[in-house]
């Protein structure tokens, strides 16, 4: 569930009075998501998402997210717009929280993507990366390679071992490896950094929206492809790799940005990095979220299994064979 702050219609009416968007007709908390409180808002004119930023989003980062989405929208990417009120303000306060009214995009997120849907997602990612080539704002990645060892330490050896025997040694060995080989010569740009299937809206085989940019940051651009690949190309538990979905995703991306030699050479490391990032954040949440909390904890081992897969160089070679 992701409604941490409750809102009544009166509060939303008062907020909407600042906008030219009509009167409130329906208000509903949205169960999906983990970071913020999200509400579906229907007015006499249109539909919106009302997001209240909870503790995991730093309000100081909101201007970066606003500018990023505006830049992408202006470049023709399918991303939601922050709505401005009559005074040109897009950031409000409601129930003591920073809040934004956001364009509602049609579509549903898929749980078992097809090759065609993966192709459309790869293309949307490539289009986004192309559009961000001239985006000048930056935001450090607080979950980048230098953050993984401290995060592993915060999980503690006992915590990691409580999830799986031997996990602690594996995680620290992976930190050693990735710190030594992380690429430093690839283009760095603004990236989404969390393009899981639940953050892509689809209508049929086509992407209708990319949402949830709250991990967006400046990073090695191809790392975004690695994150998306790791999220899309396996069964949810990470036991089964889907070669067709992988081929679809990579070819959609390559329609916009070529998988050049430097990118292909770095991908095995970037893919392992993506797995370690989600393995660690899930471990941290697993250890620190009470089992009876309202938020559902995600399985860390689903990303250890993906890490095992990518650590076998032959798998990545096969995946990229077509592009060499
Ligand atoms: N602009 C949007 N248009 C349509 N639905 C949206 C939009 N933004 C969010 N949602 C819905 O709200 C859910 C949670 O949003 P998300 O940004 O992923 O939350 P969180 O940041 O808490 O993870 C999404 O899964 C989607 O169903
Ligand atoms: N995608 C991450 C968790 C972040 O959740 P989101 O709802 O903000 O996308 C994971 O699967 O570990």
From TrEMBL:
This protein's record includes keyword Nucleotide-binding: yes
The reaction(s) this protein catalyses: L-homoserine + ATP = O-phospho-L-homoserine + ADP + H(+)
Pathway info: Amino-acid biosynthesis; L-threonine biosynthesis; L-threonine from L-aspartate: step 4/5
CDD domains documented for this protein: HomoserineK_II
Origin superkingdom: Bacteria
Keyword Kinase: yes
MF annotations from Gene Ontology: ATP binding; homoserine kinase activity
GO BP: threonine biosynthetic process
Class of this enzyme: transferase
Keyword terms, alphabetized: Amino-acid biosynthesis, ATP-binding, Kinase, Nucleotide-binding, Threonine biosynthesis, Transferase
SUPFAM superfamilies: Protein kinase-like (PK-like) (SSF56112)
Family in the record: Belongs to the pseudomonas-type ThrB family.
Protein name per its UniProtKB record: Homoserine kinase
């Amino acid at each position: 569930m992701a409604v941490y702050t409750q809102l009544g219609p009166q509060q939303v009416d008062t907020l909407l009075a600042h906008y030219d968007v009509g009167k409130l007709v329906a208000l509903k908390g949205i169960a999906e998501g983990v970071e913020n409180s999200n509400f579906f808002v229907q007015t006499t004119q249109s539909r919106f998402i009302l997001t209240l930023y909870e503790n995991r989003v730093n309000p100081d980062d909101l201007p970066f997210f606003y500018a990023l989405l505006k830049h992408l929208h202006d470049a023709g990417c399918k991303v939601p717009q922050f709505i401005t009120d009559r005074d040109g303000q897009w950031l409000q306060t409601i129930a003591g929280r920073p809040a934004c009214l956001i364009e509602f995009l049609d579509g549903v997120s898929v749980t078992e993507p097809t090759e065609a849907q993966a192709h459309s997602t790869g293309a949307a990612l490539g289009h986004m990366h192309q559009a961000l080539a001239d985006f000048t704002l930056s935001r450090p990645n607080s979950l980048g390679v230098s953050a993984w060892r401290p995060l592993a330490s915060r999980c503690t050896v006992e915590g990691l071992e409580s999830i799986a025997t031997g996990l602690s040694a594996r995680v620290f060995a992976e930190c050693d490896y990735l710190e030594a080989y992380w690429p430093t010569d690839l283009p760095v740009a603004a990236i989404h950094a969390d393009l899981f299937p639940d953050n892509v809206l689809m209508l049929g085989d086509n992407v209708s929206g990319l949402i949830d940019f709250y991990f967006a940051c400046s990073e090695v651009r191809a790392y975004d492809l690695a994150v998306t690949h790791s999220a899309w190309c396996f069964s949810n538990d990470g036991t089964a790799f889907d070669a067709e979905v992988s081929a679809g995703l990579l070819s959609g991306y390559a329609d916009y940005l070529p998988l050049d030699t430097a990118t292909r050479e770095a991908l095995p490391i970037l893919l392992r990095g993506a797995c370690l990032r989600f393995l660690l954040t899930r471990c941290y949440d697993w250890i620190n979220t009470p089992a009876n909390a309202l938020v559902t904890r995600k399985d860390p081992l689903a990303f250890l299994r993906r890490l095992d897969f990518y650590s076998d160089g032959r798998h990545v070679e096969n995946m990229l064979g077509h592009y060499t």
